[in-house]
Amino acid sequence: MHIGFDISQTGSGKAGCGYFAHALAHAMINIAPEHNFSLYPSFGDFYFDALMPVMNPYSGRSVEYGPRHLTRETARAFWTSEDAEQSIGSPDIVHSNNFWSPLQMTSSRLIYTFYDMGFLIDPTWTTEANRLGCFEGVFRSSVTADWVVAISEASRVHYLKVFPHFPEDRIRVIYPCSRFADSSAVGKRPKALDGIPAEGFWLNVGTVEPRKNQRRLAQSYADYLEAGGEPMPLVLAGGKGWLMEDFQKHLAELGIEAQVVMTGYVTDEELIWLYRNCYANLYPSLFEGFGLPVLEGMQFGAPTITTTSSSVPEVAGDAAILLDPEDTNGWTQAMLRLVANRNERDALSIASVKRAGQFDWQRSAGDLLQLYEDAVALPKRQVTK
Q1: Structural domains present in the chain
Q2: Which residues does 168 contact at the CB level (< 8 Å), separation at least 6?
Q3: What is the pTM of this model?
């Protein structure tokens, strides 16, 4: 097969979507070198990374870098042109991973990765421009994609609920996995945690933004301290996202500004250290397509308290404490309970490592390659106009 694969979000600033595409590209090239891979450093006109590597960072016998564009304008002109499919050699598969969906694939099988539609659940979780751009891409996929890859069963169900016209037998769940290959890695302590002992802090990983629910977590933590909980700092590891300009003021009003450590962006090495050495990983997100920080924390033995929302229970299984993300008192009580019961904490740590072992990139890549085989074997999807 000739596989065209979107890697536009896999640059140095990659987040969850980028890690998914990056890891699948590596795994597919590794387990199926008989195929020809064309990797697209720009794809469409919605997402554009001007800092994508100039040269192909993926090695393989039959791996080529697709057209790289230096500006969003030239990328838009290329990918929206009528002859875009012919310009890329009419591959058997064209796989979109960045929310954008092309309209003009007449022979290539169009595969579309669907992450989530949190922007439909609550419009205040993102900006209007991002919400409109994401929805346009997802909607177009429901009309033009031959197959959809959902990253969780919860995402699959939500997609079909919003787009009941999409054929149910052409959407398949393929789980993400951890970005970290070496589960024995010890990592490197971030400078922001100098003086804070191992197992002496609560951890929350992710961009600080409304959907990740750090406001309620801060309230629960303030109540935990007020109730006499052990005064371990709360470490928020992640950059500031949109619509959270007043978050520092929120911490000050709760009286916990001095007890909250905001690391900003951390390296992979630093993140491993945080997961391995936290007292517990707290992940109260209101909505997720998957919930990668839960899985990655579990890989390194982080005892986990997380949300009952959307896809996260699929990730955590029975290896975590699951709570309503809006129940601030429930989170306070769980933190107090875990501090008072070290045996429960240690049992969660053991269970988390076992649970994380059930997610494997080679298995996911194999499932994706099977989907490609199925897509090529069947006619292109017929869309009623």
Answers
A1: 2-177+361-377 (3.40.50.2000), 191-356 (3.40.50.2000)
A2: 160
A3: 0.91
